[in-house]
Amino acid sequence: MTTIKRCVMAALQNLDEDQYKMFCNALVDRPGDRRVEENKVRRKDYIDVTNVLVSTFSENGTPAVVIELLEKIGCSDEAKDLDDRIAEPLPKSSASKDKHFVSKHRVRLTESVTNINAILHRLLEKKVIHDGIYDEIHDAEGNQEKMTKIYKLVLKSGNRAKDIFLEILKEQEPALVEELENFPIQEEHFVIKHWSELIDSLTRINPILNRLLEKKVIQDEVYEEIHDTKGNQEKMTKIYELALKSGNRAKDIFLEILKEQEPALVEDLENIA
Fold first, then answer.
1. Whole-structure pTM over 0.70, yes or no?
2. Cβ-count burial of 57 within 10 angstroms (0-12 exposed, 13-18 middle, 19+ buried)?
3. Dihedral, 263, 66, 102, 145 alpha carbons, nearest 10
4. Is 154 exposed, middle or buried (CB count within 10 Å of its CB: 0-12, 13-18, 19+)?
5. What distance in Å separates the CA atoms of residue 143 and residue 235, rounded to the nearest whole number?
6. Roughly how many angstroms between the first and final C-alpha of the chain, as a whole number?
7. What is the DSSP letter of 40?
8. Where are the alpha helices (DSSP H) in the chain?
9. From residue 64, how far is each of 108, 116, 117, 118 by CA, in Å?
10. Which of 51, 114, 168, 229 could bridge to 122 as Cys pair (CB 3.0-4.6 Å)?
């Protein structure tokens, strides 16, 4: 039976020598509460590095880290291929049935949380982040940009970080958490309901942007602002903020475009219970 570990191993094995070196360097340089020392990957083959990844991030947590690093070194096709490979051992539909509160309400939290600095201090105190990550998030412009970085740099590593983050939210934003706990998820638009999966999975943003421009959901200046934003998750956050926030018409068109550009992903999300 194919396992997540074997899928990761195959992805690393398929990298050429230069790509593999870049991947190992990016792994060592990766910020976060779980770091990989250089001596654990230097002159190690893909089997050894896979074992290090799994022991550091857990088997279920490793694919998100590997996909993130592959995208960082410019191997977007390889990242998408790995995402497709893990669909059999870990179907997105089953993985998302019991989606964590923090993932389920990603859009609203990104949009609504304001006590970011207090939350960052508590994440640092609880050793979910270290000083370098704290500074990077703290220096980001605007609350939504900071929240996007929290999701990207802190909350992708697994449920332990999400659990602690939720505890802190209950301290710092109790009214918001209570509101979201009673939020009627079943009535949400498809795009909002599955925003967490979309923001993590979509890598080919430019064709989607082109279609949004063609269909006059966005204007040239908005197109340029989103296009020039660094990072796919940051671009997706801008798409929501500048294009989809206005109402269901824009969301409906965005969904039509997704069905054109990412039919397999939409089909998978439609099957989530």
1. no
2. buried
3. -90
4. buried
5. 15
6. 25
7. G
8. 4-13, 17-29, 46-57, 62-72, 76-85, 92-95, 101-104, 106-112, 116-125, 131-138, 143-153, 159-172, 174-181, 190-193, 195-201, 205-214, 220-227, 232-239, 248-261, 263-270
9. 22, 24, 26, 27
10. 168
